[in-house]
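Q: What does the assembled structure look like for these inputs?
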Amino acid sequence: AQKVTQAQTEISVVEKEDVTLDCVYETRDTTYYLFWYKQPPSGELVFLIRRNSFDEQNEISGRYSWNFQKSTSSFNFTITASQVVDSAVYFCALTGSGNTGKLIFGQGTTLQVKP
Amino acid sequence: DTGVSQDPRHKITKRGQNVTFRCDPISEHNRLYWYRQTLGQGPEFLTYFQNEAQLEKSRLLSDRFSAERPKGSFSTLEIQRTEQGDSAMYLCASSPGLAEGYEQYFGPGTRLTVT
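A:
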């Protein structure tokens, strides 16, 4: 069965610090997709990134970067020079089996960035 | 592109009453998903539609729950004889593709409180 584990429940940092959010997944599928979503206090989930299982290239988008390692089944997310606006709950997700596209979410990591 | 919309945003109901939620996906998106999110947890998959066909239902979706997507446009989720355990945020998402791996765009959710 698929599973996503985000072991860090809450992280608190001071503005401008770098922070890494961990995500470990389990799946028996050879083809799968991984996602990160942001849920700010307003509540609406915002898509951040998608990676497929055949592309282990790391990705950088502004202050955000993602490290995908199949060998350790991890898909970690780093925010560089954090800002107060980064405060939110971040979810890692994995596609379920059967080409349905349904997402299996982790429990989320609450990030608090203090000024 | 107006995004995914959901109505109502909040619903308070008494135990035993029926409630219905509506989701309007992004225009021309083929897939529509329903998730449920309880406090401190990640969203959990309930069901999804590909155009007007409901293709999968989670075990979380008891007989009291029913969903429709007539004509492959908007969708409704009805809960009959609500119970306090139904209190949660109900999220709708739509996706442009007919295969897995496409990102899902989420609506703002409907927060249900059963008293």
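DSSP finds no helices and twelve strands in chain A.
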